[in-house]
Amino acid sequence: xxxxDSVYTKExxxxxxxxxxxxxxxxxxxxxxxxxxxxxxxxxxxxxxAEQSLLDVLDSWKQYGIDGWxxxxxxxxxxxxxxxxxxASLVGxxxxxxxxxxxxxxxxxxxxxxxxxxxxxxxxILADELNFPxxxxxxxxxxHLQGFDPEEHLIQVKSDNGHLLNEEDIIAEMKEDIAxxxxxxxxxxxxxxxxxxxxxxxxxxxxxxxxxDLCHSIGAIPHQLRKWxxxxxxxxxxxxxxxxxxxxxxxxxxxxxxxxxxxLAGWFSSNKQKQxxxxxxxxxxxxxxxxxxxxxxIFSIAPLIGSLAIFxxxxxxxxxxxxxxxxxxxxxxxxxxxxxxxxxxxxPRDERRGAxxxxxxxxxxxxxxxxxxxxxxxxxxxxxxxxxxxxxxYNTFEEVWNTIQVLKFxxxxxxxxxxxxxxxxxx
Length: 427
Prior knowledge:
Elements: H1 10-18, E1 36-37, H2 48-64, H3 79-91, E2 98-100, H4 104-115, E3 124-128, H5 133-145, H6 150-153, E4 154-157, H7 167-172, E5 178-184, H8 196-205, E6 209-213, H9 225-228, E7 232-235, E8 250-253, H10 298-301, H11 303-314, H12 316-337, E9 344-345, E10 357-360, H13 364-373, E11 376-377, E12 379-381, E13 385-388, H14 397-412
Helix pairs in contact: 1-14, 2-11, 3-11, 4-5, 12-14
């Protein structure tokens, strides 16, 4: 074991980096060495492998034209299925249970329209009040389409403190009138990880189907969706999976639900062998591919080829191990260096936290602007939240140390006061 210097010194951070088994992957990402990027939980950085796979697919269009659907290094016609197989290990699923398709919200609409089957007393959907707004918009929309009033039929579990959810409260709301449950795996603000296995078991004991939004956990924490018997899940790929802005999302459907007709059918819902028969009666795929709708966005899916290759080498368990160390180290430094400046850590302190920290300050918006001026890239969440996400594949412990020193400088010199304490158009 190396002999570490004091935990609060730059030398300590550098020694942690020297023994980091994932350090080599940093060189695969396009990183501005004059800045510190801590917003990978909103948009991950571009890797050289993701760039190359995009160029490869672009070249296949150049070389093959229409025949790129079936020829070339990555035939487009099967790309959603092949990438689903490669992504399955990140969520603990069989390859045929995962399909790369659509967007997060489109996939949620698809899954709710497929799994929400109100009957008798069971006419309500259970969610929570801390979820990302897009999920709530979609759930309300689906209720409207079924002729239900969301004010009555969408039950949102309350939070005691506005940051965390009590799983006992969630289970208590699993009443006989609940037909479907949709929850986040990780709360997008506070980073709290929900116990998906426990909640799934509780739901099934009450004859309720349950699905999870994995947007803030995929690529950052391990999952065992099949082992936990989760009914369905959906997620984006532009955060920790580093697929690029607007990259194609993905979904999981438990094998036990294969054969369920998609609520929103489209041409790419078809069995691949039947698709070009051009029949007006759909023959759905016999796996998660049935829940596709339209033609895959090939150039928005291509970067995932390279990105997922990195995950296959790094391993999600190693990524999670380093992520916990990075965020634990950052919390240690925040408490030691910033104790005079009224910051409050609102994320869980233990391993029930995801891959980012959530700290609050009354001047959060202007502090984030001051950080950016000093080339540290954070993420602001109204009204007073700062999210900091040191990503295991490309951030270092030294960057964590430097970030807290910059933040201390900003607070000590009151550099934030020259900015307005309000968010920009995109926060």
